[in-house]
Structures are given as C-alpha cells and as structure tokens.
Write a structure and sequence with these properties.
Rossmann fold; SDR_fam; oxidoreductase; NAD(P)-bd_dom_sf; oxidoreductase activity; single chain; alpha/beta
C-alpha cells in the first residue's frame, strides 16, 4: 500500500480559527477576515518548517490520486469553473491526467498550456460561462447537455471573486455573493440530474477560512452599497458555500442519492484573487513568499475529486485533505435552511434530481 503523508496539521491553528469565529461577533468583518489571512500565512511558514519536503510530498499524493481515479473512472466527465488559472488550472490539469473529459468555463490559453504540459490532446475544452449572470449559467448547462454526455462525474465549483469594489450581478445582487454562491448554486442544481446518473457523482465546493469571520449573512445588504465591505461580503459568500454544502448534503441523503458534496479550503495561496485591489495586490508581492503555490492549494480539490475511499464522505469541510470543524454558524440547520430559501428566492431554482 502506498504511504500518503499529509501536510502537518496545526492544532493551534484550528483552535485559533474557532476562537476568531467567536470574536467575530465583536470585531469588524474586515478586521476579522484580515486576522484570518495572517493566521493562514503563519500556518504556511509553520508547515514548511515542519515538513521540508512538502512540495515533493504534494506531487507524490497527486500522482497517487490520479492513478486511483484512472482505475475507476475510465470514461469520467468533469467540469471545473475558473479552470483557466490558479487553483482551477491545477485541478483541471489533474483531472485531464486522470483521464477525465473536462470542461472549463473560459481560457483557450489554459487548454493549450495543459495539453502542452501533459501531452494529452482532446480531453479539455472551453465553454462560455459567466457566473454573474443566471442566464449565462443556464445557457452553459443547456450547451453542456447538448454535448450528449450520459452523466457528469465531477463538478468543481472553483471560480471566485474577492476584495472587489461594490458591484451587482446581472440580477442585481452583490457581485461576490452572486458569483461565489448564487452562480454556483444554480449551476450545481441545474447539473444535479446528470451528476446523479454518474456511478458516484462528486461535487466539490471551494470555500475559505474567511468564513470564520462571519457570524451570519446580512441578506439585507446584498442589493445596495449600504454597509458594503470588500472583505466582509467575501466572508459572507464563503460562509454561504459551507451552508450550501450542508443543506445540499441533507437533501441528497433524504433522496438516497449516491452523490457526495464537500467543501474545501485551499489555504493562503499565491493567486490573482487580489487583482481588483491595486494596494493589496502590491502588498501581496512580499507576502507571496509565505503563500502556497496554486498546486499545493489545489490539493484538497484534487483529493475530493479523484481519491478513492470517499464514496460515502459527504457534507464535510476539508483543509489539507482532513475534515475540519467549520464556523459553528455553518452547523446550524436554521442558518442552512435560511440560505437555501433565500437562494431559491433569488434564483428561482430549487432541488430536483
């Protein structure tokens, strides 16, 4: 049996995040989210000191999971949102190497790059998808279904926006919440019948440690600039990701579906999430030294998409390939169901297999 060595787990980090979640009732949202970011960078430094061969072990785990998937998904089909860059690029690349016919939402350049790096042709394609438009999401689903795939094995809801100026989606909802949650909510439920037809469909939702900064979601602040906080509203959207996973998991189990849905946190990574904030983007230049590479950050997504032995694991929040305790608010069924009812209200889409 191949030995898998996971990144070192810092109990102090887990306890600190739960403490921050408790303090978030007293602290401003943006401050709390910033403190979480600092904690993530400290964890990265601690892990590198504890495990000097972290990158080598990452590459080893990746190959093990790709090999596992190859043996059980000879004709697998996958979708990765935001697959053109960063974490999504690394996730899409691993799926292609595992033999999956994979679709990403944009980025022909990414297709060319992955084909050049892997030597695998014809497995990756691009279809137009704008998660800030419900009509674009529905058009994407119609176009995907027209391809004639009998099932969808893996859906990775990876795309996201962070720390942006106030803006609204096509339907009039705050952009970070609209893209990070509502767009993926509609995409997931519209594709769910196809995922349910897979031998063992998997849904992976990228969340963030920023969700520990929220005590709730201010639904009354999602349609106007009143009370807008760039990091605070990002925190709302990431808490929504966990609440969605919990609520969807409960519905899948009630329907006796074999589909699993799990959330994961990539950690503090060197990606372009701060591209909309020139000041933060400049500050990230020295900070990138203590940030994870996109490959290391994508490992939990790759794990949940490809690894064997996860057929019955659902409704969990993973960090470094280990289930963790999310923000306690995410464990409240009342909060989960409030998000679900609001999502149905905002999109007109509800659970249906």
């Amino acid at each position: 049996m191949t030995t898998i060595i996971l990144p070192p787990r810092a109990q102090w980090h887990d306890r600190a995040l739960l403490k921050i979640a408790a303090l978030s009732q007293k602290w401003p949202l943006a401050l709390t989210a910033s403190v979480v970011g600092v904690m993530e960078c400290l964890l990265n430094v601690w892990q590198l000191l504890q495990q000097r061969d972290l990158v080598a072990q990452t590459l080893h785990r990746r190959q093990v999971w790709i090999k596992q998937a190859k043996s059980s998904h000879s004709h697998g089909v996958a979708i990765v949102t935001g697959g053109n860059t960063g974490l999504g690029f690394e996730t899409a690349k691993a799926l292609v190497e595992a033999g999956f016919t994979t679709v990403i939402g944009k980025g022909q350049e990414a297709v060319d790059k992955i084909e050049a790096q892997t030597g695998i042709k014809g497995k990756l394609s691009v279809m137009a998808l704008d998660l800030s438009s419900q009509e674009s999401v529905k058009a994407f689903v119609r176009e995907f279904k027209a391809l004639g795939h009998q099932h969808l094995d893996v859906l990775v809801n990876n795309a996201g926006m962070m720390d942006i100026p106030f803006g609204l989606t096509k339907e009039g909802y705050e952009m970070q919440f609209g893209v990070n949650h509502l767009g993926h909510y509609t995409l997931t439920l519209a594709l769910l019948p196809l995922i349910n037809k897979a031998p063992q469909g998997r849904i992976v939702v990228l969340s963030s440690g920023a969700m520990y900064a929220s005590t709730d979601i201010r639904y009354d602040l999602l349609q106007s600039p009143k009370g807008y906080s760039r990091l605070g509203h990002y925190s709302y959207s990431k808490l929504a990701n966990i609440l969605f996973v919990k609520a969807l998991d409960r519905r899948l189990k009630q329907a006796r579906s074999k589909v699993t849905v799990n959330a994961c946190h990539p950690g503090a990574c060197s990606t372009d999430l701060f591209r909309h904030n020139p000041v933060m983007n400049l500050m990230m230049v020295p900070v990138r030294i203590v940030c994870r590479s996109p490959l290391v950050g994508a490992m939990s997504s790759i794990y949940l998409a490809l690894a064997s032995g996860l057929d019955t694991i659902s409704g969990e929040y993973f960090f470094d390939q280990i289930p963790r305790t999310p923000n306690p608010v995410a464990l409240q069924e009342k909060s989960q169901e409030l998000l679900w009812s609001k999502s149905v209200e905002f999109t007109g889409v509800d659970f249906k297999l």
